[in-house]
Amino acid sequence: MASHDLRDVLNLPSDHSSTPRPSKKQRTGPGRPNLKGLAREVQNLGGDNPIAIVPEAAVFKKRRVISRKPAARWELRPFTNSARGDDGALILRHWRRKTDHDAPPDAMEEDGEPGPVENAADGERQVEKTIKTEDSTFAKFNVEISIPQYNDDQYRANLERSDWSKEETGYLLKLVQDYDLRWPIIWDRYDYSPQTFPVNGEAVNGDSTAVVPVKGEQRSMEALKARYYEVATVMMSVQKPAQYMTGPEFQLYETMMKFDPLQEEARKEFALNTMARSKEEAREEESLLLEMKRILARTERFKEERRELYQRLDYPSTDADINTYKTSTGLNSLLQNLMNVDKTKKRKSIMASGEGVSPGTAVPPTAVSEAGPNRRESIAATGPSHRESISGTPVTPAEPTPKDTKKKGAAPAERRKLSEQEEQVYGVTHHDRLGSGPTFRYEKINKLYSHKSGQQQLRITNALGELDIPARLAMPTAAVTGQFEVLWSAVTALVDLRKVSDRLDADIKVEEHKKAERDKARGITNGGGDASSRDRSVRKDGAGPNGSAEKSDERRTEPGTAETKPETRPRSQRSQHNDLQNGNGGTAAAEPKPGSGGPGEGANVDGAPAEVKEEPGAGEREKLGPRPSSSGAHKRSASVLSTISDKSAKRQKK
Amino acid sequence: MAQQTLSSAMPPTDIYGGDEVSALVLDPGYCQTRAGFAGEEMPKQVIPSFYGHIDGRDIFGDEVILPRANFEVRNYMNRDSVVEDWDGATKIWEHLLCKRLQPERPTPPSKNGLNIGDGDGDGDGDVSMEDANGGGGGAENSVDDLEKPLAENPVLMTEAPWNSAKAREKAIEICMENWGCPAFWLSRTPVLAAFAAGKATALVVDVGGANTSVTAIHDGTVLKRSIQRSPIGGLWLSNQIRSMWEMSDPRVDLVPTFMVENKKPVEAGAPAEARLRNFPFPIAPSFRAFEEERVLTEFKESVVEVWRGPGRFQSNEDYAKSQPGRVFEMPDGSNQMWREQRYRVSEGMWDETVAFDQHEGRVAKSQTIPGLIKAALDGVDVDLRPNLVGNIVVTGSTSLLNGFNDRLNQELTNMYPGLKIKIHAAGLTSERRFGAWIGGSILASLGTFHQMWISRKEYDENGAGIVEKRCK
């Protein structure tokens, strides 16, 4: 009724005057909850929004639930730590909840509740009987690294090094063990002195602020690492050859083997420099690096495109001698060759496309290896085959394997690609294209031989003889033939060079003769010295035979400066050094006139092992001339080669 | 204890690696010796390493150092923080560990005169006795045990990184022979300070009382070649203040508090009006020095500040003069405003050219804190340096000087502009003061540490030399 009164007071048109019933109904309609503890009038004051009333129950806080169990008992329980490795000599004690029976610690962790009293008493007695101490739960965290072990024989056979004694190696390994391969610490504590271990800490250097003075010669961390990795890899491979290692083992082996102390040192040097730079420099370098990356990516792409282009062109290799193609028959054979190549190529492409559809229709001898993935699957389905065994188990490098991989290259999508490591393990190598049918390794060499002229063959054989290497290898394994090929190509290059140099010598001689003739004709007598000086300057000019060949060509066509000759000639004999220094001037001065050829030109043209003709007035300088120098070069290159040849010789002995 | 608040019976070992074995941690230093229980966050007992010697008797603790006749103050350490006076050391350590940390031992029941006959009566005493017998396992109540007061507590001790092998062996000898500890460990203070900061790899800058040291820690092991130290510590700073007071005009007299009987307030800069106490006995110079050090410590705590930039103090002296000063009243009532001088005294830590001359000689460039850090970093592998500079732990009481960390950061930024520098300095004063102790407390309560302890058996078998082999 309160709202009604209000409306009265405010002179509002009361709606209930017309229809009092509905309003009443309305009020009750929503079913306003009839809350207790509040007068209806007061409640109505709220109008449509009822006054919020939170009923408060006068209840006391709940009683804490007290367990009827007796208070938990804690005991000072002894325990040992098996990680100490002292058979439980140290017994420490910690507080632990007392359990009903001394079960193993795991079980105890799960049910921490103390059991019935009689059980506890039982347990008490059991504890008395059984072993009293448990092992610490932290013992499992003790991890020890494994260090390569070796005995005396193994050390002598594999690990002898001049700069590492056995004792020092042992010391290093002990430190590695002690400090768990943490190299900074190992390096920090590395303090090996051959006689005795020093008593450190006693003598502190007065002037140095460092408490442990750094003693004279110290091994760098890289040296220590290199030695350790060396020992570790050698012992690893001694215990288990690389082929039989498992994946992770091999990975470790490879990582350790590839450790390069020099590179590490360079890297550290670099890091040191990097530390010293300022922020601006760092930012600049970063942007430069980014730029470089971009450039590199671009060149990479460019290279890729170029390679593709070249592949498309498939240009013939230019290593071979061009002389064979200078004749018409040579050209003919070249054409034939090219056609053959083209043919094989075509056939191959056809085969590649038709592969798998009709595997048997290709060339019979290679049918087995040509077989595509489909075929292989069918074989695999019928049962374990020869090929399955090849790819499944490690094999020694044999003929079928390379072919296998060749074919894998042809159909790369289906086959699993071997990783580098697996290739090494299985002995897979990649070759040039092999002809059909079996071939011998040394035949490749023989083929190279046959391309050479008889005289060159002879020279090559001589050179090899000089190095104590038989022309036919006794044990042509892949490695040996590889090395031999390297050696052989070096010898060939040497022989070629010598040929060129001989030819040059002959040319020079001819020119000298010409000049001598000309000088005679002019009545000037001291031509020999001049010739020799010119000779020298030629040597100086042309570092390589090719270069000098070009030079001499030029010289032939160059117009001579004849009028300066008379003046320079007497001086040139004395000022040899000047000539050597500014060689071009000297050469120009001593240039003979073209076209004034004399007799005796043909005498030395053929560049046989040049017999030196003593020119009048040439004197002893002539002896330093062409021939001896060329032979000197030969000797030198032979000694360069000797390192390679030694290696290959050793292999052969193996 | 954290263990009791957990609902399960066992602490969760996967996250909580603690396993308390009631080990004690002892951290002796030149100025203070700290001792407490492993697993706690503060040392229970901190007493000065100075102890009183009176009439042939040694007395320990701060409260006993009072003006008395025939009283002399001694320290068992030398200025290198290496124990010199082993008799004193043994006594002061025993005083701490056995007397102050352990409750008074009850007289064994067989001797206390209460158990005449077989009085198996009801009572709490008997129950606890049974418990002790049941849980403790036999050997506890033997006569041996009474002679060896620490038979149940492994002891972890700290040492300076340059501690000598002889001193280390002596320490284990005392623990094993005198106190009968079941296990012992010796750890270096910088390692523990790094542990207290939660780091296993850090460059620890410890600016303590007698020494300042910079040490690189890698994986919880000291890198010996990086250990650098210099005398630039709290005592050096005190001497700087002395020098400054002597040189200032008017000269500032240092009268320790115990000498002053009565004082009147005076204007700033005016001479003191105080009546000094007269003692009927001579005061030992060592005691006076100890008391003077208290005044100086107060001065350091309330006035001295580190110039935190811009630049070095020397080039900014005028600017420093404009900074607000602080007034310090001496015990005798004389007081004075200190402006730029309060920066000046500590500047020698950073810039050797500004340091006052002292009796011990000037500091070299390599002895300043930047010099020490540089030398320490040069002594470690290049690969570690960026990591170390990114994990610098500052500890030691003298590092609490105002502005110390700002200045250190500035110096490091100048030295290594390209590297990320991060300084970790505990905010709590106590954590900075007791860094090494806290680290020791953490270490000794770790479950995984139990395999490291040198056990009594190992000591018996190998002799004291084992400490050199094990605590590397």
From TrEMBL, chain A:
Compartments in which it is found: Nucleus
Protein species of origin: Lasiosphaeria ovina
Name listed for the protein in its UniProt record: SWR1-complex protein 4
UniProt xrefs under Pfam families: SANT_DAMP1_like
DAMP1 SANT/Myb-like domain sequence ranges: 137-235
GO BP: any one term: negative regulation of transcription by RNA polymerase II
A single Gene Ontology CC term: Swr1 complex
Record's compositionally biased regions (Polar residues): 573-582
Main location: nucleus
InterPro entries: DAMP1_SANT-like, Swc4/Dmap1
Chain intervals for the UniProt region annotation (Disordered): 1-37, 100-120, 346-425, 513-654
Family recorded in the similarity comment: Belongs to the SWC4 family.
GO molecular function ontology, one term from the record: transcription corepressor activity
UniProtKB/TrEMBL annotation, chain B:
Summary of subunit composition and partner proteins: Component of the NuA4 histone acetyltransferase complex, of the INO80 chromatin remodeling complex, and of the SWR1 chromatin remodeling complex.
Family recorded in the similarity comment: Belongs to the actin family. ARP4 subfamily.
Predominant place of localization: nucleus
GO cellular component assignments: nucleus
Keyword Nucleus belongs to the record: yes
Protein name per UniProt: Actin-related protein 4
Chain positions covered by the region annotation Disordered: 102-145
Compartments where found: Nucleus
Organism expressing this protein natively: Lasiosphaeria ovina
Pfam families: Actin (PF00022)
Higher taxonomy: Eukaryota, Fungi, Dikarya, Ascomycota, Pezizomycotina
Keywords: Activator, Chromatin regulator, DNA damage, DNA repair, Nucleus, Transcription, Transcription regulation
GO biological process, one term: chromatin organization
PANTHER family from the UniProt entry: ACTIN
